[in-house]
Amino acid sequence: MSGTVFxxxxxxxxxxGTLIRTLxxxxxxxxxxxxxxxxxxxxxxxxxxxxxxxxxxxxxxxVIEGDFVEHAEYSGRRYGTLRSELEKRIAxxxxxxxxxxxxxxxxxxxxxxxxxxxFIAPPSEETLRLRLVGRGTDDMDQIERRLExxxxxLAAQDEFAHIVHNDRLDEAVGELERIVRGA
Length: 183
Description:
Elements: E1 5-9, H1 16-26, E2 31-32, E3 36-37, E4 52-53, H2 56-64, E5 68-74, E6 77-82, H3 83-91, E7 96-99, H4 102-111, E8 116-121, H5 125-135, H6 140-155, E9 162-165, H7 169-182
Parallel strand pairs: 1-7, 1-8, 2-7, 3-4, 8-9
Antiparallel strand pairs: 3-6, 5-6
């Protein structure tokens, strides 16, 4: 038996991480794939737990060697999902959640057409701006870059079979859980 891959994407600051953490609490049988990134760890983040933190040279080497099922650049940093992160878990019958960028979700649509792709949308662009400012992890230039990228990502939401609007956390998690349980 093999597991299902759930791709959860949406703009930076939309609340993907919070929704996924809550979903995993409700559905402990799901596993979260740990992405790789070239960005520096934020306070409290650990290598191999929150991300696989790679330098640019290592990331390039792994791209060339075909170690990623998807990879993308976002806000000047690169992110990707290691093939080894997925293949082992799926072969063991575990369902896996990927928290990835829209570029990566598009790649997964091509390479893994059976993956369930879910787009998380904010209630408004202004709400997204307030969330990005409120989390306090980026300077204003980074926030503006993220918002520019978010506009393009929001235009892509129709490419996804499922769209969850993250206005009220409990309702959004409930909708996400219904989609996952129904797959």
